[in-house]
Batch of 2 targets.
Target 1
Amino acid sequence: MLGIKILGTGRYDPGKKVVNEDFTSFIDTSDEWIRTRTGMQERFVSDGEPTWYMGTQAAKKAIEAAGISPEEIGVIIDTSVSPDYYTPSMSCMIQRELHAVNAMTIDVNCACAGCVYGIDMAKRYLQTDDGIKYALVVANENLTKITDYSDRSTCVLFGDGAAALVIAKSENSLYSSHLGADGTGAKYLFARSIPPANAFMTGEGRVDDGFPEPNGHYLCQDGKAVYKFATRALPKALKTAAEKIDFCLDDLDVIIPHQANVRIIETAAKNLGISMDKFVVNLDRHANTSSASIPIAIDEAVRSGRIKRGDKVGLVGFGAGLTFGAVIFEY
Ligand code: ACO
């Protein structure tokens, strides 16, 4: 089977660290509530660094670790729900910064499943286009830009960060994926862009999106609905990816789930009958960085030696959209 090889990883932790206690000065919350309901303790937040900058820094480290030159990259896939511009794309900005002159550029918006989608897209480009030797997947998030710091039910959950992976194809190697979405759940987690209003619009054609009342451009979440979706989607995505290749999930060495809430991960582990020891959890130090959470955890696991060459790894993400996705591969 044709699989992937992650040649190099990198990450960028932004300049500021916020601990749970810091929130108590401006909202009615406590370290105890945040820790027990989510598992989170601290998170990095942007100190003014734009999203593309964070992604570029992570990408430079991944390219260095892979031992390749930026000119050898054939495709850059960037994932973000918090880009700096409507246009140009984050992948174009990163291509510019890296001088990756031979890379085509694609941005994807699949929220917390973004990196899993990006890896699977990279694999398909590597598989079908002999002109592409290396793919660069970058996940960069500046969620604090779209976080409402007067809403205690969301603001404690998110952090900023970026991570990147240099990927090549690998012959005769384990690989499966299962990606999906349920757009009927779009209203459970959203952040609006600017409304359609300019000199030529009368407003008569306004179409209701069915979402709750406007909340500016801030992230708005029905935490319970997303929680319910996540605890079902996480095991189902992994199981379906495994079934496609007749793979037994017990044979996974490491599972890296999206880092939204430790209770979601514990519930999924129980449903799958897999020990929590196999799950990488770093949300205590990073909180939820949306699409960046899985590659940040990959980079930490690679650099700390938790993932070793030959290990069978499962990645599983879920998030706004609603989207979900799992990838099984050999590191
Ligand atoms: N501090 C103190 N109290 C709080 C806080 C807070 N920060 N936030 C909410 N509360 C209160 C609520 O007001 C409520 O009070 P009430 O009972 O008086 O009404 C009480 O705590 C319980 O609130 P719940 O919403 O029931 O808390 P729950 O245990 O469900 O935890 C949470 C909320 C952490 C948001 C959980 O639902 C969750 O993790 N949901 C999933 C989020 C997720 O996975 N998002 C992923 C995608 S992110 C992306 O794609 C960008």
Note: Residues 29, 33-34, 37-38, 81, 111-112, 152-153, 156, 189, 223-224, 226-227, 230, 260-261, 264, 288, 290, 319-320 surround acetyl coenzyme *A (CB under 6 Å).
Target 2
Amino acid sequence: MQKSLTSSIIIPEKIQQDWQNMLNVLADLAKVPAALVMRIDEDNMEVFSSSSSNGNPYIEGHKEPLNQNLYCEHVVKHRHQLIVPNALKDSKWKDSPDASLNMIAYCGLPLFWPDNTPFGTVCLLDNKENTFSQTYQQLLKTYQQSIEAQLSILFQHSELLKNHQRLQQEIAKNNKHINEINTKLANEIDSRRAAEQKVEYHKNHDVGTGFLNPIALYRHMDKLINTNQQFVLLHIHFANSRKIQQEHGHSVFDLLLTQYRSKLTKITDTSVTGRLDSSDILLIVHADKEKLPQLCHHLSEIGQASFSNNNETIHLQSYIGGVHSKDDASRTELLQCAYNTVVECQNLGKTFTISDRSLPIKSTLSEHRIEGYLLEAVRNNDLFLSYQPKVCPYTKRWLGCEALLRWDHPHLGSISNDVLIQLAERNGLIYELGNFALRSAVQQTSEWVLHSPSFVTAVNISAVQLKDPYFVQHIQQLLELYNLPAKNLELEVTESGLIADEALAIDTLTQLHQMGISIALDDFGTGYASFQYLKKYPFDTLKIDKSFIDNIEHNSADQNIVCAMINIAKKLQLKVVVEGVENMNQERFVSREGVDIIQGYLYSKPITSDKLEEGLFNQSSIGSPYFQFM
Ligand code: C2E
Ligand code: CA
Ligand code: CA
């Protein structure tokens, strides 16, 4: 017989006692020697409870193996009542083990668990012939039901217990799983934190040498300046850095700088060091005026000392320029001064120089150096645009703006556009500068026109750009890329841009004009053949130069020239823009003459794209305002 799960259910002592009492009563009533509850397992039939009546041969706990023709096994197997009145007269039962105990009469009923697996039997046995009348059969049936009811309760209890255990196991398993997840999560958080720290380190440091990078160093300087803390800024230039890098490679030079840095920290533990570029580092120290020369002396000693690389000795050659922080000196001014001092130091052949000049000092930089910086700025995206609003003098609404290039250099400060553009035109960087200005302006304007559909941004175009045979195609691609309608773009060209190659310039500007881009003649009046150009080229706008406006209040010649220019422009149906208007008198004069647009500090200086957007947004939300961003 297959082992069922119910076979492991234990019958409590209290119930066993009940069954025992019940069997005693049953045997007594039926006047038989044995009343039994039998329990079956896969191999045996066990006397589970046995009445304590006289002549009962069955002993509690006795087990008889199955398959030897036991009455009870038959009852369980057939799941049915069995009555044997006299086994001695019945060939089927006369050799059964029960008959050999002299129990020749039998009446038994099966007992089942609620899941229909067998428990055993309840039965009466007699040592003489017995047909077990209906009354006893009924009595036995009642006992069977009562026992099965108790089995049912035990079964449910056992199920509950099993479920409870399963639940406990599940909870333990889940707890284990949660613990594993927690550990994994903690590991992940740790490794992420480590990665973040690494990123943070990379963000602030020159990875090859461990020096702070310029951004982090400038941030530190700004903090000191903003909290009025005194410090000394030392600019250390390694004159032979290029040579070392060429002969031994960049990584070796980085290694030398790392060694240099560790020597540095031994002599000034309060310093902050940063690497400016491949040959220059900056040091911020908090040293007294008296002690500074001694410190610089030490620094130059380690700056000239020998460093070892694979048994080879390499010397660094350093120059040091120092400057004390001063009230009101900006970071840019301090950097510029330290830089100039180190250049001076090198020119004079000294090892260190402390600046005693007042800030800011005039730059003595060669064009060659500025060129180098400009190249870096273009490649590093250090340039940006500012935007000067173009205003309708009658409604004061911002109708458009002019995009103007800006470049703030840490050493050189703000560089004037005139110097910048001329330089870039000479060395060919104007293509990159021009493309940068065009792309940034087109991208920016494509956002503004979503709110202000008629807003026009003007971009300055250099003579060199106009010579580029792919210029029209390039602009077309930009407009498509940023989805900007051509009518929202204006190009400002100067007469100098037109002289170079007239035929090409006319062709290029005509194509652009036909695309719907507005063409403006900039700085009108400053060239010498201005009026002729107005007929030849497809201009839409004329910009009267600031130099005519500067003295317009007091100079009647300028007044006459401006009036004449406005008149001619009107006759040629050109829009007139006046630039450089700084006061109300100038505004009154030119608006009386009927100019269309005014651009000047009176309304706003060139401002950031965010500020321009803010002004535009306010203008469209409250009607016709009069904004000033000064
Ligand atoms: P511009 O095209 O004549 O630009 C107007 C210049 O006058 C701007 O100087 C502007 O800031 C200044 N300005 C405007 N209103 C006033 C005013 O009321 N008072 C005074 N004092 N100045 C005023 P900025 O930005 O220095 O530009 C100088 C020149 O650099 C520009 O002269 C333009 O020729 C050139 N430039 C600027 N950006 C670019 C560019 O992206 N590409 C090219 N090729 N040239 C550019
Ligand atoms: Ca311009
Ligand atoms: Ca101009």
Note: The domain at 377-621 is CATH 3.20.20.450 (TIM Barrel).
